[in-house]
Amino acid sequence: MIMKKVLFIMAVSAMAAGCADNSIPKAQLPELDLSNPLLAAWDTPHETPPFSEIKLADYEPAFDAAIACSRAEIDAIVNNPKKPTFGNTIVALERQGELLNRIAGLFFNLLEADTSDEMQQIAQRVQPKLTELSNDISLNPELFARVKQVYEHPGRLRKEDRKLLEDTYQSFARSGAALSDADKELYRKYTSELSGLTLRFGQNALAATNAFTLNITDPKVVAELPAFVREGMAAEAKARGEKGWTVTLQHPSYLPFMTYSSNRELKEKLWKASNSRALGGEFDNTQIVKKIANTRLKIANLLGYKCYADYVLERRMAENTKTVNDFLAELLAATKSYADADYRTVSDYAATLGFKGQLMPWDWSYYTEKYKDEKYALNDELVKPYLKLENVKKGVFMLANKLYGLNFTPDDKIEVYHPDVTAYDVTDADGRFMAVLYLDFFPRESKRSGAWMTEFRGTSRTADGVETRPLVSLVMNFTRPTASTPSLLTFDELTTLLHEFGHALHGMLARGEYESLNGTNVCRDFVELPSQMMEYWATEKEYLDLWAEHYQTGERIPADLVGRIVAAKNYLAAYANVRQVSFGLIDMAWHTLRGAWSGSVESFEREAARSVQVMPAVEHTAMSTSFTHIFAGGYAAGYYGYKWSEVLAADAFSLFRERGIFDRATAASFRHLLEQGDQRPAMDIYVEFRGHRPATEALIREMGIGTENGGTEDTEATKPEKK
Q1: Above pLDDT 70, what percent of the chain?
Q2: pLDDT digits (tens, 9 = 90+) for 40-53
Q3: Who's near 432: CB < 8 A, 6+ residues apart?
Q4: Given this model, what pLDDT does residue 482 score?
């Protein structure tokens, strides 16, 4: 869930701006039950959450108390007899609700990473209260009048202050503040319905993922699989109290079986199960998908927009629907013929191995892996021994140190929310504390699939310089170690960790005054730039040579193996690009609807992706019902942002190629980009770093289109997510 951060403050010293009173009005706060650890001060290292002290029963009363505090703070702003100023209105709004933000940041992050049935029930009860509060704030006419007065008479402000003022005003205007009373009630109704629908969607998607397992008891079926795959399946079966070997729809379980098993029947069953999650059955999301899309359209129409995408994109780098559609069309035109050629190449190769008939999606992983092995003498089994998770983590930390001077020290005094999680103190080259970093690597039923970065707390600074540093969390779903083997990552998992770590750097390096303008609180088509760019180091020989070593022998990764990794980096790149474009097109199709949709989700999706179809379409499958990015996350009318940011990243990394991949001057310049967050328009920040606006050609060059083709795995649409 993404909600506007509301900050709670007891008292803040006055800020001077001429003779105007900029002091933040002091609220008459309700008395708090300090026996509830969520309401009390946290006497912990860096004021980190005391997870062991918090019980599920604490959450609801804490939410209720924090909501009451927020209301009191809003009342103090509204009823302030002083003339509205930037300080007593705009900054006061930014600072209010800190207690609520602390509780929500904790609860909703754990709801994703370590949930339970009871937590999901609490979320169902709490979410409407939060939506009501948000609406009460954004639809308050007296509050909006104060904001509007400051907006129309801003006086002299710093650039960061002007950006906060603009964002605050637009937030009100785009949340129904200027609507009639009757339309405000409709807005309340629609947003309340939408918050409940998106929550239910995510819960159904997780439940559907966990509901399917494939248990195998015949040793002949698994005999061909690599040892690490068999061991992982055996461990999964043992954990479930089953005999033999078990495959789940979680990526670290599903993908290896699809890649290495030749059993088409079982792979078809698995693929169809994965690609029909929540499409009917007990955890059906089909009606919820339509209700979400239709409700978003109602909200957009109410606010004066023809479709939801028009509403969203107005505040993005892309600015409008046409720009996004043209962008996706440009990428498609440049790569579709090459993607079709990729499919024919793999199909022809499969035929040489005796495959008969049409190559289907469940065949793809197996034959692309075999073809890669033959063409590049490269496969996961060759690479994984050099990607022991502990070594990969060391390598990622090393990169952050070489570029930005950051140091990571394990801190066992910091409590964690699950035994799998580790916590680190992050300091800069001068020893200054920068952040706490939590790492949560392994799958479990209480965790949703995918990989993401989030924050328990963001960055802010008071007017007198007192700084609050972030609590950053990276959540993955990597293969667990077995009794005989440590956790060994695939090359794709290495890039996933680098990707999410790019988001983490964005959060950890933030240096602004206002939390809402710091770190990853930037527009969606800019937020993926730091993460996409970090992926480029995964294929840099100079980087891999520093840390990648065999987990058994300690041998450094051989130069010829690194060379093969580099050579294969664009393997089936066109196919991968078109697949990603298809997700963007499906997203845009749902959010450019001009009228209510009541038809088939499956047929709607198929029509939306017709122009990008490479693989044969399969009946009774659809990704929309488990597409959490757009139906339960913050990427609605924004999934194109992954490709948009890839263009930015390709162009940005070319500067490192020119000057050296560890060049500290270039890194310092990019660090400045990360530090600024959303304090200025994203394009201005980017151009300041690069010296020019990015062009699509930069990405096409990086993909090697027309020279060497590159690849991906055809599984679920879970490009790593920032939440």
Answers
A1: 95
A2: 999 999 999 999 99
A3: none
A4: 85
Residue by residue, DSSP assigns 596-625 as ---S-HHHHHHHHTGGG--SPP-TT--SGG
Q: Is the pLDDT of residue 648 over 50?
A: yes
Query: Using the 8-state DSSP alphabet, how is residue 388 labeled?
Result: B
Instruction: Note the pLDDT tens digit of each residue in 375-427.
Output: 999 999 999 999 999 999 999 999 999 999 999 999 999 999 999 999 999 99
Question: Which residues lie closer than 8 Å to 638 by C-beta, 6 or more apart?
Answer: 312, 316, 524, 525, 587, 630
Residue 6 has pLDDT above 80, yes or no: no
The amino acid at residue 638 is: G
- What's the whole-number average pLDDT of the chain? 93
Phi, psi angle pair for 117, to nearest 5° = -60, -40
| 509: helix, strand or coil | coil
Query: Cβ atoms within 10 A of the Cβ of 515, count?
Result: 24
H/E segment holding residue 546: helix 541-547
Give the ranges where 20-158 is alpha helix by DSSP (H): 56-78, 92-95, 98-113, 117-138, 141-152
What mean pLDDT is predicted for residues 473-490?
93
Cβ proximity of 99 and 39 under 8 Å = yes
Contact between 471 and 455 under an 8 Å Cβ cutoff? The reply is yes
Confidence category of residue 721, pLDDT binned at 50, 70, 90: very low
Q: Could you tell me if 341 and 694 are in contact, meaning their C-beta atoms sit under 8 angstroms apart?
A: no
Would you say residue 20 has pLDDT above 80?
no
Residues 6+ apart with CB under 8 A from 297: 307, 308, 593, 594, 595, 596
pLDDT of residue 716: 34
Active site residue 500: yes
Give residue-wise pLDDT tens across range 108-165: 999 999 999 999 999 999 999 999 999 999 999 999 999 999 999 999 999 999 999 9
> For the chain, which domains are there?
16-178 (1.10.1370.40), 212-274 (no CATH), 313-383+571-722 (1.10.1370.10), 404-539 (3.40.390.10)
Phi and psi dihedrals of 513, rounded to 5? -80, -35
Q: Which two tokens stand for residue 289?
A: 């998908």
Task: Give the C-alpha separation, 699 to 327, whole Å.
Answer: 12
Degrees, nearest 5: CA angle 78-80-82: 130
Coil, strand or helix at 537: helix
Where do runs of H (alpha helix) occur along 153-282? 159-173, 181-211, 219-222, 227-239, 251-260, 264-274
Give the strand pairing for 407-410 and 422-427.
Answer: antiparallel
For residues 534 and 501, is the Cβ–Cβ distance under 8 A? yes
Answer for the pair 66, 99: CB distance below 8 angstroms, yes or no: yes
Burial class (CB in 10 A: 0-12, 13-18, 19+), 701: middle
Q: What angle do CA 233, 235, 239 make, to 5 degrees?
A: 120
In angstroms, the CA 631 to CA 346 distance is: 33
State how far the Cα of 130 lies from the Cα of 63, in Å rounded to an integer. Answer: 9
Catalytic: which of 500, 535, 540, 721?
Answer: 500
When pLDDT is averaged across residues 286-306 and rounded to a whole number, the result is: 98
pLDDT average, residue stretch 185-197: 97
Beta partners for residue 213, in sequence order:
248
Asked if residue 383 lies in contact with residue 565, where contact means CB atoms within 8 angstroms, the answer is yes
- In this structure, the strands spanning 452-457 and 721-722 are parallel
Banded model confidence at residue 707, pLDDT cuts 50, 70, 90: low
